Amino acid sequence: MSVTFEVFRGSKEGKIVTDKTTRTLQPNEVYIETTHSGLCGTDEHYLSSGIALGHEGVGIVRQLGRDVTNVKVGARVGYGYTHYVCGDCDKCLTGWDQYCENKKEYGSHDHDLGSFSGGVVWDAGCVVPIPDGYDSADAAPLMCAGATVWTCLTEYGVKPTDRVAIMGIGGLGHLAIKLASAMGCHVVVLSSSEAKREEAFGFGASEYHVFRKGEELKDFKPVNHLLLCGSANVDYNSLIQLMDVHGSIYPLTVDFTPSPVPLLFMNLKGIRIQGSLVASRKSLRTLVQFAADKKITPTTMTFPLTKDGVEAAMQTLRDGKMRYRGVLVRE
């Protein structure tokens, strides 16, 4: 059984190209008609690679492989960064399947599949049921942006009594504020200007501080956890003053340039730098249900799921005008 669907690729020239993909449905795969897709900064990184873009998808299951039993035709599901996990390696068996030794994921595999598309063929074990009543436009950004911050907030010892700082209020940062607040944490927002103060408090922040590279914050109570959700170019020396003893820093936006780390001062305070990658299948399902139960929704701007719509959304992100996650919607 084969299916053909439209995809939107990047190109060497940095332009969006419309293409067709044909895939044969394997026994444990499903064909999903894409209805919504979030836009992530990672898509911008892959714009010149020629791959089908997008990894924050929501859609309707239209066809099933012969061995699929966990979803039905007509089900509304999400799909994200991880395309396939084996389920048998040590990472999968210990609940960290986003690090599966045999995984397929966005950017590295299945270059003809992405959520900027009319559809995808996906491993049935890696789709996420979307709860009834939770809007697909809200669910799409949870597949990567939400998943990324959720893992930091739930897998590394964050407690409701902790002071949790969010640096950078964008696609990841605004969701981190909303989720950490809903978990009961004291949320401290760090931004480079006063521009987003009112919105940050509306998202659930308890404190808001203007913090710029090289500056010292006066009368600042140290935090237990710091999620770096803004610029990838971070001065780790300036972060030491923000951290409590045994605090953790989560670098969620990174580039390919090495970052100097002040190891002596980090040792003196027992500070940890904790890497993290999206979410496991179990964690992602928990996030979607938590968001639905607590009525937590991303703040979004919508664009049509067309070539022109993709280009407009990416330009808005590039210009720094996205508030706060772009979502492409099938017309």
Entry keywords:
seven-stranded mixed β-sheet, alpha/beta, single chain, oxidoreductase activity, acting on the CH-OH group of donors, NAD or NADP as acceptor, 2 domains, Quinone Oxidoreductase, Chain A, domain 1, 331 residues, Rossmann fold, six-stranded parallel β-sheet, globular
Q: Helix/strand-derived class?
A: alpha/beta
Specify the number of helices: 10
Can you name the CATH architecture of the largest domain?
Answer: Alpha-Beta Complex
Give average pLDDT, whole number.
97
* Main sheet: strands, sense, barrel: 7 strands, mixed
CATH H-tier superfamily of the largest domain: Medium-chain alcohol dehydrogenases, catalytic domain
Low-pLDDT regions: none
What characteristic shape results from the CA principal axes?
globular
| CATH class label of the largest domain | Alpha Beta
How many strand segments?
17
- Reported by name, the CATH topology of the largest domain is Quinone Oxidoreductase, Chain A, domain 1
H/E series: EEEHEEEHEEEHHEHEHEEHEHEHEHE
Radius of gyration in whole Å, from Cα? Answer: 20 Å
N-to-C terminal Cα separation, in Å?
27 Å
> Domains counted in the coordinates: how many?
2
Cofactor: Zn(2+)
InterPro entries: ADH-like_C, ADH-like_N, ADH_Zn_CS, CAD-like, ER, GroES-like_sf, NAD(P)-bd_dom_sf
GO molecular function: oxidoreductase activity, acting on the CH-OH group of donors, NAD or NADP as acceptor; zinc ion binding
Family: Belongs to the zinc-containing alcohol dehydrogenase family.
